[in-house]
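Re: beginner question about structure tokens

> Can someone show what the tokenized structure looks like for a real chain? I only ever see the sequence side.

Sure, here's an example I had lying around. Input first:
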Amino acid sequence: MLILFKNLINKVSSKKINSTYFDIVFFILILYSLSQSIVIAKEDLFILNNFNSAIKYLWLSSPIIFLYLLLRLIRIPILLCGYITLSIIFTLEFINNTKTALTGEPLSFNDITSGVNLTIAGRYLTMWPIAIGLIIFFGGIISIILSKKIITTRKKHFLILTTLIIITPFSFSPYFIPTPENDNKLYEKINSLANKFDVVYFSWDWPGNVRTHGLPMHLIQTSTRKSVPKATNLERELYEKERNIHSISPAKHKTIIYILCESCWYDSKNFIDKFSPLFHMGYKQLRATSSVYGGGTANSEFEMLTGLPSNSKVLSGIIYQEYAGFIKPNADTLASALKNRGFITFSAHNNDKGFWRRDVIYQKFGFDKFEGLSDMGALPPEYASKKKSWQWQPDDYLLYRAALSTIKQANGKKIFLNLITMSTHGPFQHINDYGEGVYNYQINESIERITEFSKELEKIDPDAVIVIYGDHKPSLNKFFYENNVLPSDLFLKTGDNDQDFIFKGNVTPKDFGDVPVLIKSKDEESIKRLVEEANNKPFFCLSTLIDKYFINSGLPAFNYNNQNICGKDLPYSYEEESLMTPTWFYSLALFQD
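And the corresponding structure tokens:
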């Protein structure tokens, strides 16, 4: 290849030649360079039966190919086009490797576009990368000079334009996710192919996303995140008025517990018997609407802790993951509001503390302490011995042991606990069924652990308020389809396995988001009012109304929701409720002091 390139350069010095030769050479060089750096091919693409792998590799490489074609289209000298593209590949590799080594997180789109991040990156520059940069600069000048005798015909320009148009939906496939606003055949087709070839964003695992999908596609995927909202001075005054508009009466209870029950779900026909121990203990039930399905737990938790809609068009993606670095240290949340009122604030999750960036988020949300799986010790033998071979999830016993220990240490002081369970996390194996057998076993164990915890808590504080909410439906797609829990007309694609199912673009949380909520308190009159007012509401309204009847935190978002969105005399649809919170409310609650 180097000999071919050298011969082409020699021809340039003597006569004008067609640019096609160079396009072919650069196309090969780009694909080879990507395979050795930022889009590593996992298999031998030259084996005939790896056709799908080759298509996937080209798809993941397409953002860089798009860049080269775009430079060609705007008539940048051809050798400079190739030179810039190859330089960008190796520069991105260097920067990504540096950031990953220093932080454990790969490069994201915001790292490139944010001036703050560029300033920080400048601190790591040494003479060596600066010298390399100068060499690249002078190499670019030389490439311009050598390009003078290379011609591109009009026909060739038209071919470049056509190719660019064809690959654009693939290069920017994260922007072609179907929604009710852009529900058309092209979006549906691109989405279906993205699932088929596994080009779907791992928003919960950035290092894994880069390993699986390559850095170029990762940068495109993270570019879909909406910008951090800003607020004006006038809007700041409005927010402060909302903060002070209601006098804060004393908290009604000294022990408040939120339990996010991972994938916990039932309806009148399915799995309801597993929850009967909680009903017998006095838990009352209602329904809520989750903004996510089968995953995205952190967005459900976000709504409950902040009183802000997660799918309002102001923020995007998994909010903890996408905005962890931008949320201010003193964000306005239920935890921070209660902390300001003298509560101990504690959160626990029997999983990796860094998952969904909770180790960063919880500090900013006002939690005094966060315990993860690594802090919880070993599972007692009497529990460990009963585990099935397919139970990889950490036992919720560990979570509740940590919670009870913290409550006892509080010694009667006011305390707020935010607990996230793990025992019922999917996927759910199909063992001669559609996964319902495994789910049945797991949900039964989960409810047993909650029941044990509730009994122990009653001994410590019988007046405690406990809220249990399923964050989303379990990913029992095949089971839901066969039992008409989710009607067939919601799906673009179905199949034999849970992962075969793809929702249509016009499907909304109102179609898939129904989840159960259970609450326990001695204040039966308040529970009755809560059930009447909060039933079928989204999580941000649910938490608002729980605060209204049981907590009185004074959180500005709750005050605003009570007056404008969530009251029983305000009969808005789910879609309307999700869009009513002003942009500046997000800015001042989460980002701007």
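Each token stands for a local structural state, so reading them left to right follows the chain. The chain has 26 helices and twelve strands.
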